[in-house]
Amino acid sequence: MNLIEEKVVFKNYSMCLRDAVEDFTKELINNLFDEQHLAEKGEKNKQKFLKILERLSIEKGEEIWKEFEASFLDIRKKLDLDAIAAERNDPAAKSLEEIYLAYPGFYAIAVYRLSHQLLQQEVAVLPRVMSEFAHSKTGTDIHPGAEIGNSFFIDHATGIVIGETTIIKDNVSIYQGVTLGGIQVKKSLASTKRHPTIESGVVIYANATILGGDVIIGKNSVIGANVCVTESIAENSIVTVQSENNIFQKRN
User: Fold this and answer.
1) Of 77, 85, 90, 200, which is the most buried if we count CB atoms within 10 A?
2) By the 8 A CB rule, do 168 and 109 touch?
3) pTM of structure
4) Is residue 225 within 8 Å of 241, Cβ to Cβ?
5) CA dist., res. 69 & res. 71, Å (int)
């Protein structure tokens, strides 16, 4: 045994909890949108939740569940507004049913709204495991600590990152590849606002990057594709990349 091995103290972690949280989260969303499913499996899923808290050494599980369950109606109302926003903003959407069943962006938002509630209740670890399940499932990484308003629309939902201290107001739309991140990555900044604020009515197109806790994107602005923003933008602005790309086509 070398010196490093002698100093290391190994601690056991219940990695299978990832699977338990994935199963719980799936059932929770099914219950949220299907009354028959809730009637048949709601109590069983509650017991899964209590078992997860027990394995995380979190006490007062029944009280936590009661408060969490009381939030479901409000969360469902918010998600219905999100679905309506998707149908309104996406010309490819043929029905609300299609949004609920087939849109990964909507699924990612659903998991976010549930995990955000648990984080507000100061439940440790579980909200992050839920968000990472959604990340692996949809390609969208929304930290449960972010604050997101009503009627939020994510289109295509691939490669999106929304950081912990991001604030997104109402009626915001974002597209694939968008990053709402921090301009610096330092542990000393953990307790500060590191991520941008997006005011109401903003549209952020594909692969745009907005960085910094002091950055505010003013309401009703449009951030074009591939833009990198590190300073605040006034309301009603249109921000685009000026490109000198020349396309040459050789003809025979």
Assistant:
1) 85
2) no
3) 0.91
4) yes
5) 5
Mind listing the pLDDT tens digit for each residue in 18-74?
Answer: 999 999 999 999 999 998 988 999 999 999 999 999 999 999 999 999 999 999 999
The SS3 call for residue 199 is coil
Q: How far is CA 145 from CA 50, 113, 133, 163, 167, in A?
A: 22, 10, 16, 8, 9
For domain 14-140, give the CATH number.
Answer: 1.10.3130.10
- Check if the beta carbon of residue 139 is closer than 8 Å to that of residue 104: yes
DSSP-derived pairing of the beta strands 209-211 and 179-181: parallel
How remote is the C-alpha of 107 from its chain's centroid?
Answer: 9
Distance CA 249, CA 27 (A): 53
CATH number of this structure's domain 146-242: 2.160.10.10
Domains of the chain, by residue range, sit at 14-140, 146-242
Each residue of 30-68: b (16+ CB within 10 Å) or e? bbbeeeeebeebeeebbebbeebbeebebeebeebbeeb
Alpha carbon separation from 192 to 110, 145, 207 (Å, rounded)? 26, 13, 25
Distance between CA 183 and CA 215 in Å, rounded?
10
Query: What is the average per-residue pLDDT within 3-12?
Result: 63
Q: pLDDT digits over 146-174, tens only?
A: 999 999 999 999 999 999 999 999 999 99
Q: Is 183 exposed, middle or buried (0-12, 13-18, 19+ CB in 10 A)?
A: middle
